[in-house]
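Quick illustration, no need to memorize.
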Amino acid sequence: MEVIQLMYPHQIHPEEVDGPYSLALGFFDGVHRGHQKVIQAAKEVADRTNTKLAVMTFDPHPSLVLGGRKDPIFYITPLQQKVEILEQLGVDTLFVVRFTSDFAKLSPEKFYELFIKNLNVKHVTAGFDYTFGSRGSGTMDVMQVLCGSSVSVQVVEKLEDGDDKVSSTRIRGLLKEGDMEEVQSLLGRPYQTPGVVVHGDKRGRQIGFPTANIQVPEGTFIPANGVYVVKIRVQDEWYEGMCNIGYKPTFKNPDEKQLTIEVNIFEFENNIYGEEVVVDWYKRIRDEKKFDGVDGLIAQLTADQQQCKAFFLK
């Protein structure tokens, strides 16, 4: 997959663009089943018209530039992870548009000229609620008017699961609750977190449950505190394990709020400090607890490990 970074203002030279394209538009945080429906619709047109399948996304999140949001932004799929997922979906070209204050001021007409017409796009697909241009003034009805007969336009209706639509907002809410099974249903795959193995306090090793301490990229959405059934990819091999997210209240002062993500990897003894890993999250099995002593903690961890191993035997 070719990844092309775009800025506004920019000059696009014909030799830089290897279209024509069937283009899916969206921010696509999570690349969930609703997003996949949009991309699949664009792919069907690409296959039928012998054009290339392209996706256009934006970085950073628009709310970081537009303001009006008090909470920090956490991504379901940071950009690099999004790139990897889109490549797996068969996308030929990914346009990553830098979302800046100047870009946010573009009129819908200028957006169409620079990012549709000048990119040799022959077909545009987006979700029913997609907007573009200054203050979101460009709706998909506006897109159809701007494209006229030169570019075909397809609007994909919302995908529902249960009583609500599949959305990034809904998935974030589920992640806050630790409901990884429902998250997996909406994503179409387990929730996944990239990270690097760093040094911890090595207390798990002392009680017979050595853990890999995972440091995740800034801006990564971390699920609710608790103990989880996970798999972890280390050096291109997948291993089963259990993970604790929390503050280790049995050993730490409750006032020292340093969140840790620790994975006990089953049947694994290698030294992997500094390794890049990926964690797949399957199920939250309990809250984080404070124990009166080490013996109680060991008994609980033994039960947790048995439950996690049983999960993968189903």
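The chain has ten helices and 14 strands.
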